[in-house]
Amino acid sequence: MNITFIGAGYVGLVSGTMFAHLGHKVTCLDTDERKIVELQNGKLPIYEPELELYVKQSMASGNLTFTTDYGSAIKDSQIIFIAVGTPPLDSGGADLHYVFEAVDSILKVTGPDDDKLIVIKSTVPPGTCLKVAEYIRSKGKKFKIASNPEFLREGSAVWDFLNPDRIVIGTTNISSNQLLEEIYAPLIKQGLQLFSTDITTSELIKYSSNSFLATKIAFINEMADLCEQIGANIEDLALGVGLDKRIGKEFLKAGPGFGGSCFPKDILALSHITKQNNCAFHILNATIKANQERPMKMAGKVSAAIGGIQGKKIAVLGLSFKAGTDDVRSSPAIEICQILQQQGAEICAFDPVAMDNARVILPDISYAPSILEASKDARAIIILTEWPEFTQLPFAELALIMKSRIILDFRNILNEELAVNAGFEYYSIGKKHE
Ligand code: UGA
């Protein structure tokens, strides 16, 4: 089938590439000319494991092309996915102007008899697809509209695309359903569950999923604080609770708080939507507050461990909001660095892939090319992202080059015994410090 993706950002590029891999003819369009030229030359604008390989394979097979031109991009396509950004407004609501800009551009290059399916993949407030449908009707066009939210995680997006727990679609008629079933057919054949509902519920499922997962994390993070106070162990607690299938083990890893371009934005948007509709959402508002307070709490732990921050050199390992990505948007690591810096710390950071992105928002800290160089003369090491390369630190070498042997492992990835045997004072999350 011929498919167009409007927006070659994270969602559009991964989904478009993977649909091409499934055998469809995909055109990815973006208005950013530089990005498109780079993609045409095989250069990816994001770091995502395995994606480059799939992009190159699909380009070589002729299934994947990139363009900035709306006319050629949608001329032959049966389905147009809108996968543009929906950044947060000051109110907490979602800014939909990129969505409507995309719709306008589609309308401009199509005739009154064109009958295509427009699928909104961007995360949009419930009611948006129906508003878009109304807008299209008001312009005398007859495109059909559907919702198909994405559930890809950065860092494992390719795997998530090929092995989803479910695909959610929201449609208003059977023919849209059939078209969407057709493009997902290769995955449906492998047993994928396609869940079909009305369009507004589909939009709301996306916000609910992200909000529920964020709430699980906020819950376990506050349980971790309690564990530290009373001498319980958060990892055993998470497992003991998570083994109950009704709760589940996933997303119960305590840490420095959740970040990224989705959870923080989507929980604020859902809170805004409930307020607009005169509904209370006490739990979600508590999740927002708990997560906003987390970086300050983490900075407090650093200060307590090293006896004040002012003038001390601190080595920060990890800047991306989680491992497997170079994305630093709403990264707790960045927020913690900012707080420590305000409190007078001299920070030297190392991240295997995210330093270029971090430099843009944190220009005034130093960056080092390795763990050892970041740690030279440091009073403490703080681990803020769970990169595999941080799980086995060279303790013996670190002991020789650091000013004091203190490690704060805010992702609980180190072997405590090894750290302690090497003479380090070891602090983790959710376990009493001995
Ligand atoms: C999230 C959702 O998991 C995806 O299903 C969704 O498609 C995506 O948002 C989106 O809306 O586009 P993502 O933001 O890539 O995906 O990252 P997650 O793996 O969900 O992690 C989010 C944050 O939670 C990270 O900062 C991570 O470190 C933190 N986290 C996650 C924890 O602190 N503990 C956990 O147990 C899990």
Q: Could you explain the architecture of this structure?
A:
The protein is an alpha/beta fold and 434 residues long. The protein is built from 18 helices and 14 strands. It has helices spanning 10-21, 33-40, 51-60, 70-74, 97-108, 128-138, 157-162, 174-183, 185-189, 199-230, 234-242, 263-276, 282-306, 332-342, 355-361, 371-375, 395-401, 416-421, and strands spanning 2-6, 25-29, 64-67, 79-82, 117-120, 144-147, 167-170, 194-197, 313-317, 346-350, 366-367, 380-383, 406-409, 425-427. A six-stranded parallel beta sheet has the order 3-2-1-4-5-6, with helices on both faces. A six-stranded parallel beta sheet has the order 11-10-9-12-13-14. Strand 10 (346-350), helix 15 and strand 11 (366-367) form a beta-alpha-beta unit. The chain starts with a strand and ends in a 7-residue tail after the last strand. The mean pLDDT is 96. It binds uridine-5'-diphosphate-glucuronic acid. The site of uridine-5'-diphosphate-glucuronic acid has 20 residues, from helix 10.
Compact overview of the structure:
This protein is of the alpha/beta class and 434 residues long.
List keywords for this structure.
single chain, 434 residues, alpha/beta, 6-stranded parallel β-sheet, 14 strands, binds uridine-5'-diphosphate-glucuronic acid
Main structural class: alpha/beta
- CA radius of gyration is 24 Å
- Number-wise, the strands total 14
> Helical element count?
18
Are there runs of 5+ residues with pLDDT below 50, and where? none
List cofactors, ions and other ligands.
uridine-5'-diphosphate-glucuronic acid
Average pLDDT level: 96
The dominant shape is globular
Distance between the termini: 61 Å
Percent in helix: 40-55%
Order of strands across the biggest sheet? Answer: 3-2-1-4-5-6
What is the beta-strand fraction? Answer: 5-15%
Largest sheet: 6 strands, parallel
